[in-house]
Amino acid sequence: MSEVLQNPPFSFRYDGVPSSTLLPAWTKTTATANQPDGRTRRTITWTAPDGLEVRWIGDEYPGFTTLSWTVYFTHKGTAQSKQLSDVLAMDVSVTSMPDTDWVLRTALGSSQTKNDFTPIDLPLPVSAYRVFSTAGGRPTDGRFMKPPAAGDWSYLTGPAGAPGYLQQDQHSTAAAGATARFIFSGTSVSWIGPKNVDCGIAAVWIDGVKVGTVDLYAGSWLKQQTLFTSAQLPEATHVLEIVATGRKNANATGTIIAVDGFTFQATGGVTVNDPLSDITYNTNAQGNSLWEFATEDEHSSFFQDSQHYYQDNQHRSTVAGAEASWTFTGNSVTWVGPKNLDCGIADVYLDGVKVATVDLYATTWLKQQTLWTSGALTSGQHTLRVVNTGTKNASAIGTFVTIDAFIYTSSLPVTVDDTAAAITYAGAWNANPSGGSQGYINSTQHSSSAASASATLTFQGTGITWVTARNVDCGIADVFLDNVKVATVDLYATTWLKQQDVWTSATLSNTTHTLKIVNTGTKNAAGSGTVVPIDAFRYSTAGVVTTYNDTDGAIEYLSAPNSRTAVANGWPFWNLDMVGCGLICALGWPGQWGAQVQRTSPTEVRWTGGMVSKDGDELQHGQQLAAMDLADLWLAPNEAIRTALIVMQPWNGGTAAAAQNQWRRWMLQYHVPRAANSTGPAQPLAPTQANDYFPGQHDTAQDEIAWMNSYGSQQTTQGTGGVQDWWWIDAGWYQNSPNAPTDTWEWTGTWTPDPTRFPHGLKPVTDRARQLGMKSIIWYEPERVMPGTFIHNNYLSYTLEDVPDAQQIPYKRQWGGVARLFNFGDPAALSWASGYFNNSINTQGVDLYREDFNINPLPFWNKADPAGRRGITQARYVDGHLAFWTALQAAHPGMLIDTCASGGRRLDILTLGQSINLLRSDTIRQATANQAHLAGLTPWVPLHGGAVRAIAQYDDDYNLRSGMGPVFHLAVAALEPTVPWNTVRASLAEWAAIKQYYLQDFHLLTPHSVSDDRWMVWQFGTAAAGFLQAFRRPSSGAAAQVVQLRGLTGTRTYRLTDTRTGMVWTTTGSALAAGLRLTLPNPTLASTITYQGL
């Protein structure tokens, strides 16, 4: 970071003069000191002639490239200061960067949706800039973020626009950064498009990694060209991105890139969404569609109707004769849709023959159901038709027929049974031993105890798996592929496990291969024999080529940076990926912030940012950061303010994903709050609580104690031999106001327990929790003050008022206009609150202070600013609120603070230096959302949590694994007789065995997605040990997924244990890096697989 330190990495104006002019002329002092944790602190102070002191405090960290800093302004003059304006906590230009295709990687903040923390990748071509902000004054509020439009893409069709193209159409663009994104499941992909004299250069990315650059220049117009073909890919879901670079060949006359289509090898189930252009929906004689299209969109009249459908949309019809027709190439097909009270009966035709009549009636609304499936078909082209009969079940109230999606396969794995002639056995083998083959494939097996006995199969395909049994009498076998030894497999198990996938090779070239299994004659020390059985082999074929035209719904067209400069994503973290090197940056300001990243030249980037006073949705396209109302104020004598905390961490070598783990290590070593009585970071937590997330205002002290006693009696709490170590009392425990609606937690401002429900306060509850081995987490919300409450009635002068209704933008009006904001920027209010809440913590026996923040403070701050002092209220408030937390922690050393703001809307880097996060989003208890939230947030924030419940349903294991994380918040209806306590105990034990790895490296092994038709797989750990978790979501048609583990030692042997199946096996790091085939036979299954280096 030497370049950053050459010049002050911040800027401002004083009396209208820029700091770059002023600071060299002011008095300057410097100091350097080593801090107790090993960091080096540099302090540079400039003093103006009138007494304004500007102090920059920067920290460098041994073992890391990280530099963090904050700027403090203090006026030590005797009169009012001059005007301090345009204050930028960060104003840094970094030069000598590589001239490559830059991508700015960030994410979406929290907005109470499953999309919270979804990664956002923004190309940053030369001269482009992006301005980022948040909503309402909470730093990680992403509710104003809108998806990029496709405005930079032109759709051309017909003989004039696309002659000789696929289906005579194309999408094209000349805008640098414009992106075409294609999500597919398969083992290879190709991009089809034209070349011409006016075509430019495109970058190609697969799964977030740049894999090629394609020059589309040609001396004549060439059409339907294969512009790019991937290398062999693992059998999985992948994301292909084609990005216009804005560059061209020296001979070219333009920078156009075009998408005509994509072709991919589909080896598993491919889900086709209902809007796909190849699906035909018929019309009436007037040309009007007989089908309605409904989507989960705020402007759709069917908003509620399409929630939780595949990709949140559907086509539906009640009209007799309404028909959906689709032609595909494959060997099986499935129709997916809903059942309900108002659904009718449909006929299904395949290749012109009626094959089924399907009654869609159900007593409850069932979504993403498999309504009909074909079974195995002859591989080739087929036409599926679904026709509404206009009839219904006698119990139904309507005749709706809905198309949600189709799933088809274009190849199925080929299973070769042990009896097949294709397998050659050498040595002594026992074929189908009597009584020993029940539960095997086709109830047959071959087995041998003889050293050197071998089984050999020659096949053509792209992957192969050995399927066999494990048992106490099984030995050890060597695996040879194409005459090279690739693995040694120990078949020992304590129980008889059948049809096990014991070894897989998933990324083979599509040629002929030979697999050979050889009995070594050796065994595990615990084993009782050397039996090596052969049940079957299963290999994957290359599959049938599938082509998607450029108009198909699987292809998304995204705008270029210059078409969308304003990004109110509510996430002040960035990783600028310059291919092989980059720069991570975080801006920490628990208020309203703005930031701008601009590529000022091919090799230079400028970062600016700090506190602003304009809401994120008010920034217009084309405006720069200066339009967001930077600070413009004066200081009174001895008055001081601070800027945002800035953290920069450059990286060189490797990938952006690898750099995120270096960021996590820095966070854990230096920034995450320290655990009580420890110099290390706060550790993973396993809280539980009352019957549900909001017990409301019905629970009593007796209820709380009865619930926790139930946990204790079932030995799930730490003091009873279990794991759960925190008891969580959320909103609603306090005395209500006479002004409040009945039974609501929302009327905050009185922080004494309800005397009826808790006559002795919370202390008897928290004391009992400690007896059971659980500390207490208690919910507070000190900042929002409602009418009639204690603070409102007695300390109204300590609060700020909202903008009058007449001046309100309707969609920004909050709490009926009656809420007030406690003013932590007032020193008297701060002093009173510190004493009041410290006393509450002591009196109620609070061990962890959980603070929520369900109000947007920005309008309160702006209204309170005096004339000529824009931003002063916000600056004082932010500093005062941080001082409030410091006072609480000083009075209670080692006490953790939980930052909650309607979920995860206050997760900036400054806040995270004093707090952890127990509930990252108010979208809770949903498996897909829990998975997506963990996958998106973990690269940036090491310690966070969601919420999950065990409710004695078939998918409890899936949901509980989806809810695991650094904070495993698992609760049940504790007094109900149906509580699945065995499942709860097993899940807690599984989490306890892996919890240490949550604070180590994280690798997302499949693309991030919120769709229910995908797998999601991640890995936590180091080269020595760790785990991965795999989730097959409810609509996924793929029973297997291949992933490539990361960060392992290639020559090291690892022992893997699947907690779902009990399967244990060994393999090498290089084999795991090449591809591990995971199998989950049904949707809504999940598995935790640990690995341990030997």
TrEMBL record:
Signal peptide per UniProt: none
InterPro entries cross-referenced by the UniProt entry: Aldolase_TIM (IPR013785), GH (IPR017853)
Pfam families membership: Melibiase
Superkingdom of origin: Bacteria
Name by which UniProt lists this protein: Alpha-galactosidase
